[in-house]
What we know:
This protein is α/β, with parallel strands linked by helices. 35% of the residues lie in helices and 17% in strands. Helix 1 (15-27) links the parallel strand 1 and strand 2. The site of 3-phosphoglyceric acid (3PG) has 11 residues, from loops.
Amino acid sequence: MAKKVLVATEKPFAKVAVDQIKEIVEKGGCEFALLEKYTDNAQLLDAVKDANAIIVRSDKVTKEVVEAAKNLEIVVRAGAGFDNLDLDACTAHNVCAENTPGQNANAVAELVFGMAVMMARNGFNGTSGVELMGKKLGIHAYGNVGRNVARIAKGFGMEVYAFDQYVDAAKIEADGVKAVKSVEDLYKTCQYVSLHIPATAETKGSINAKLLGLMPKNAVLINTARKEVIDEAGIVAFMKERADFKYIADVAPDNKDAFAEFDGRYFFTPKKMGAQTQEANINAGVAAAHQIVNFFTNGDQKFRLNK
Ligand code: 3PG
């Protein structure tokens, strides 16, 4: 019997990406199924019942989902961050969990600058703003998105710095980016900081008032990573103290009303927008579809996360 591949996306891919995923899945001898824009977890639990493979975005693949998907062999997060996958549950049920690293990195990096320019020009409200050229930008974590941010920042004429405890300084410097020795040095040096750390037990809540307090005057924090890496109460308290500080994030903090008093100093997307481009949807969706077909046809597990 053909393996069933379910695309389960609360936030849908562009149609052009879905069409390409379907074609790859069917050419690979599998059956294609689609659950988009679901509003209730029960719909997801029902749809996964007979799926052998699932493609998701930020959809939460919890233990409950894994247990409901009795025939599940592989789940692919079409994207980079996999904090939405319960890897232990996948391992316990012998499910291969994968992601598609790098596939949507340019889209996220472009959004960093889209939002930075919008903030620098006061929301395009007709008043005089500032430019990015000549400003210092700190890239916090130098992975696929960080590297794309560096490439674009150089085009803007920014001075680019980066900190990543897992990447060799020489590799960073080879891109014409100054590698700093500590996270504190990055925040001390740069007026703009762009976050690209994953949400892990170690990083959650780690971007706090102490760190932000190191930033120079007219500091701007850009978060296209995860809202969870921010110490929310800490940043609110910090914004009360530092009237020059601005916060831009791809997706609002849990208590966004707490920011209302900082009018003009914050911007939050209504839904996570970083990877919401046709190109990123195609890149990540097509990669996910190929990974699944390769898994079923020759056991390929190159992008396996749960080792
Ligand atoms: C990622 O981790 O790849 C991005 O945050 C994209 O998330 P999305 O697929 O929910 O847009």
